[in-house]
Design goal:
The protein is an alpha/beta fold. Helix content is 40%, strand content 20%.
Length: 437
Amino acid sequence: MGSVRAMASTWLLSSFNAKAAHATKTLARSGWSASLRRNACSSPSALRSCMSAWVIDQYGTDGVLKYREEMPVPSVGSTSEVLIRVHAASLNPLDISMKGGYGAKLLNLRRDPMSVMAGASEFPLVLGRDVSGEVVDCGSDVTHVVPGDEVWAAVPPWKQGSLAEFVTLTEYEVSHKPKLLSHTEAASIPYVANTALSALVNAGGLCRDSASNKRVLITGASGGVGTFSIQLLKAWGAHVTVTCSQNAEGLVRGLGADEVVDYTAGDSLELLEMMKKFDVILDNVGGETEQWATGLLKPWSGAKYVTLVSPLLLQTDSMGLLDGMLQAGLSLHNKAMQNIISSGVFYRWGFYAPDGPALDEVSKLVDAGKILPVVEAQFPFTQVPQAFQKVENGHARGKTVVRVVEDDDKRAEGLGRTRRSEAADSEQEEREMATQN
């Protein structure tokens, strides 16, 4: 049995890596790619040996976050890695779940395949999935960035996170930060952007060339993934309907949502059923939602239901890697077959996929004024536990950001707002002229 489980774990890791590689190819075919365009890095003459970071030494709820001032600065361990000085980070619901141990078994396998049998510890663990900062060192094969470049990135959940003064990533995961955004604003976008793009492009089959006039429904649209997806889909020309609570209606309409349904109203499902059928549904809520959502899709037309709330990590946590993976795969297969047979609808799971080149394209949309950061709350680096509490309270209206470096963002934010305002005004003028013509 031990050998069988080891073989299954090896297969699981291969599948995990293959899915990320497939995501890369799919995004590239959809036009979400960027060519490498920088000369090789030169390393700085000296780096600090210690840094401050927020870590957990065990999984739990309140009190497990600890501030450490003597954490070792991560080093560039391969020729393709980049060391980033973190200026700002942001929190996602995934950070809250990971603090409690969510996904620990599968993520530990991804960190180190030998940990399955050796029982190696992942602690101390640094959380934080978004980073905006400055390159300070990079491997000899890196061509995309050089020390001094301002960059942004989404930190994969199997790597040490961004709630620290420094973080290392591969060149492929890193992108140049939008010129119009401060680090605080920029840190609110990468993880939700990579997640939304993976879901909408890989699972949903949409891209900038195919999304025009497509009808898309986003459930739970006032959070990070939802607010980004609204703007991306509108930039692609889609018709976007969203569900959210009544007090978030102004936010989502301001981002471009065409129709808004208050999910707290008693007749919300009836209102959705009265609308034209949808081509794609992006579900950020899960649970009972999928029981009625697939009925809102166009039958026998290739319509797709994509949920970001899959049971994969929960089941591997509770049942073990092999049994959990098998159970999750069986669940996906059964639901996919049921929907395709009954109405020709595709049922799919969406996952985060690291992709720096995709962020290059997002950066262009940001600098063009077509995507704006949605920052609900900001906290200094000394108040990371309070930032976690804010996210844990739920009902997000955008992102919660942690300012790791304080000295340069106030000036940059003012400049960013001015430039984005100018870009937005220009975009509005173009729309008005197009309407008049």
